[in-house]
UniProtKB/TrEMBL annotation:
NCBIfam families: iso_D2_wall_anc, LPXTG_anchor, RrgB_K2N_iso_D2. Residues 46-178 form the Gram-positive pilin subunit D1 N-terminal domain. The chain crosses the membrane at residues 443-465. It comes from Corynebacterium aquatimens. This is Fimbrial isopeptide formation D2 family protein/LPXTG-motif cell wall-anchored protein. The keyword Glycosyltransferase does not apply. Residues 1-20 form the signal peptide. Keywords: Membrane, Signal, Transmembrane, Transmembrane helix. It comes from the Bacteria. One of its GO terms (biological process) is carbohydrate metabolic process.
Amino acid sequence: MARAIRKSAAIVLAAGLTFAGVGGVAIESAVAGAQQTVSTINPNNSRSLTIHKRFGAETNTKATGQEMAGVPGQAGNGVEFQIELVQKLDTPADWEAARTLTVENATADTSFSPQTKTTGADGVAGDAYFNNLPMGVYRVTETAVPTGVIAGKPFLVYVPMAAENGDWIYNVHAYPKNNTATIAKSVKDAGIHNGGNVEYTIVASGDSAAGAGVGDNFVFTDTLPAGLDAAGATATPSFVDSSAGTLVANTDYTVTKNGQQVTVTFTEAGRNKITTANKRVQVVISAKYDGTVNQATNKATVTAGNTTYTSNEVVSHWGNVTITKKSSAGAGLQGADFQLVQCQAGAGGAWSQVVGTQPETVGTTATFTTGADGKVTINGIHVQDYVDGAAGDAAKYCVKETKAPAGYVGDDNLRPVNLTVANKNASVEITNSTSRNLLPNTGGMGIVLIVLAGLGIVGAGAFAARRNAA
């Protein structure tokens, strides 16, 4: 009998089995070689399992079943663990059966009542302790977690467990991977004015978008702020790691809209695909800005299982520029055309258009014409000191006159726009003269008449000179 048990144990250990869930987070059966046998197990030794939970840090150190010193992270209290006996290890047949065990195919042994412990409840921060355990393979499942923590994946563990030096570990220590949910939201709004599309990206970090963290419910929800067109918005989920595959609309997920709320719900097929890939998922939402507001503040939520997590807040800022065109006498001038261009300051303080750039389109036009009062206001221009959700230098803009009112000289100088978070209503005033270099500039046909008159004078002089010569 002992020989048969030795043979079975050697088969299991030599196979180097890893007892783990989908994510591969587990205690590995350390392989001491085929010489390790259950005949060396001392049945009088007490057996236990201690689960150590840490938040806020990961370690690449491989767990061996023995207690480890200096594990990084904060002790994770309040995590509830349940253990189930899924395979006794009393006979050769038991050891043979253990070879094919996985988290998914293992079934609970009804002779053992599942035990539940919460980390920190026994007075040791971050630890859950199970003692007086019969020999066997146990499935460990996180059944409850604090707010903001994603339940880790179930795993299997031997008690006792073979050590690398050939001994048996009777008091097994497990360090399951910690998954703290952090929903990160970012915004791309650089150079986006009225009529342009603001892009939000929502990423569930850690494993809140993979494996056990998905559960039977996985939903991204974003209530877009006023000023963004939710009805026309697009929502596109994908794996953060594109090599993990693609997510297909109406097969892996659905998109619904209700007022300003955009919701992406993953189907069972989509959740299974995410679980199999074990990769994070992101959702990119693109919505048109309509220029009606000067600030858009936004958060998103992700629901995994029965827990909803809230992202950080992102903010976008815009402003308005009023251009006033007037005569030297102070009267407003109608019919002056302006463009908004990216510009840079040069030597002596002169501004010039950035080479290779085109006039900015704001709303539906790139040309803005003064009205009867000599004014035109451009609404919804991106500010210059806050970009993509953070303080920083954005593109600088200048007002460029492209056509003067009839009878007036155009101003060739670019006028910078001082549009900031603190100054969202900027103004630019341009005075036109009816003369340049002592010559009247009337614009339009006035210029033509002056030129023709000049030609007439030259022609008359030439005729007189020829007559006198004759």
